Amino acid sequence: MTSRAFRIWSFVHKWTSLVATVFMLMLCLTGLPLIFHHEIEHLTLPELETLPEDHTAVPVQSIIDRADRNRPDEHVLYAFFDDEDPLVIVATGASPMSAPETFHYQTFDLRNGRQLQVAQPTEGFMYVMRRLHVDLFAALPGMLFLGLMGLLVMIAIVSGVVLYAPFMRKQPFATVRTQRSRRLRWLDLHNLLGIVTVVWLAVVTLTGMINTLAVPIERMWQASELAAMSASHRDRPVPEHYAAADRVTGEVRAAFPNSHLLTLAFPGTPFASPHHYGVYLVGNTPVTSRVLTPVLADAASGEITATRAMPWYAQTLFLSQPLHFGDYGGLPLKLLWTVLDLITIVVLVSGLYLWLGKRRGNKRATEEEPDYLLEDTA
């Protein structure tokens, strides 16, 4: 590599890193609690009652009716079933097309129908962390902006690897020149930690970029796949009475005995149709438990009318979301993700320190610029 090529790569690395560093640092800090979001959320749940093994579970419809009575001016929109505890969360809103941030959530014990006093997921510390991490409280524009920052980070990663190659030819791997200036020690540490975490950071950045496309992917699926699944009922009148939720869930569980019911979307909502319930299932393996299978059930009779596998672009999104937070391998993988996240924070902060040191016109730092940055390696 010639000195000119090296300077070009150095320019690309410096400015892509600087532009994205503040946002990347924010994402690393907000991502730390989100790695353990599942554990933190379960800690906030009240302790469930111990019931005899032969107890009879209450009908899901009775729970939905109770949630409806609790919010008489709203519509029941969704029922979310917990994948670990016997809980169902019923979401209500002013209209079937209400925005998710306006939903009111009620949590019930599926075994006895007891309502649990749980804080709304749209408030509190974890909500703030999630919104900052996902969209900067700016909805779709914020998500797309963070996706652009992710692209800059990917460019910084590639250019950083290119810049580290000449240094590797002159120094043993993991060299930190402790006998030289403080700035040079930090530069070596910055390079070392950066190259150690490069694969993890690339994976997290790439999956994060995919996640920023969640809304366009969702809308694409609704406009194509979901519309095609519900097309057979398009010209029928909207039913005046809906089948009981237990009838719908019973039909689906019988047809998919090896799947777990995750979400029940009520007719008229964006994930159903005016003529159908939307039922969303996941499998029981580490991979299939992350991929949704949509099923439409006739709103009046509860009978299944359509089901199809999610398209590749939706499956890519489903698989990238848990990988982004290390949510595939249980607590050990989450702990590894935490360590790598902390190391990345050190890389980001050290990069800022090195740049600010040069900006202050530190003559000694300039004179001790690593010789490999000026080397003609052609």
UniProtKB/TrEMBL annotation:
The keyword Transmembrane helix applies. Keywords: Membrane, Transmembrane, Transmembrane helix. The chain crosses the membrane at residues 12-36, 136-165, 186-210, 335-356. InterPro entries: PepSY-ass_TM (IPR005625). This is PepSY-associated TM helix. It comes from Alcanivorax dieselolei (strain DSM 16502 / CGMCC 1.3690 / MCCC 1A00001 / B-5).
